[in-house]
């Protein structure tokens, strides 16, 4: 891992809607929704290639907590309760420098799926379906 991939500074924005990372004096701001839908957790990435789970209804999610993990990663807790998956420095660097491309890809996948970034109403069938992301469980995901 290159030391250039380690942020010099990490700042939670007012309102907890974004995280700003500083690399070589350059500020990169990542919205909470973007960080949430690209979580490195098994709930999002799946357990193998091709098992990724499209995250929907995450518009408006905020960052509730940040916790350093050793000297290699950051644990982020989101307002929807998601807190699994560790954002290691190389992955955060990738998110920061590929934001435009990755966000456009996410929006394209949402559109192709006929899904929405807007959260479903509490108790709706869509929300119940969205909660089932790891089949029968066993991954440590909360269902």
Nutshell version of this structure?
With 143 residues, the chain is α+β, with helices and mostly antiparallel strands. 28% of the residues lie in helices and 22% in strands.
**Widest sheet, order of strands:** 1-2-3
Largest sheet: 3 strands, antiparallel
Which residue ranges are poorly predicted, with pLDDT under 50 across at least 5 consecutive positions?
Answer: 125-143
| N-C termini distance | 34 Å
From the alpha-carbon coordinates, what is the Rg to the nearest angstrom? 15 Å
Number of separate strands: 6
Helix content: 25-40%
- Summed over residues and divided by their number, the pLDDT gives a mean of 86
Series of secondary-structure elements, N-terminal to C-terminal:
EEEHHEEEHHH
CATH-defined architecture: 2-Layer Sandwich
Helix/strand-derived category reads: alpha+beta
Continuous helix count: 5
Strand content: 15-25%
The CATH class, by name, is Alpha Beta
Can you tell me the number of structural domains?
1
Shape, please? globular
User: What is the CATH topology assignment?
Assistant: NE0471 N-terminal domain-like
Task: Please explain how this structure is put together.
This protein is of the alpha+beta class and 143 residues long. It has one domain: 2-Layer Sandwich (NE0471 N-terminal domain-like). Helix content is 28%, strand content 22%. The protein is built from five helices and six strands; from the N terminus they run βββααβββααα. It has a three-stranded antiparallel sheet. The protein has a three-stranded antiparallel sheet with strand order 4-5-6. The longest helix is centred in the last third of the chain and has 15 residues, at 99-113. It starts with 8 loop residues before the first strand and ends in a 13-residue tail after the last helix. Residues 125-143 have low confidence and may be disordered.
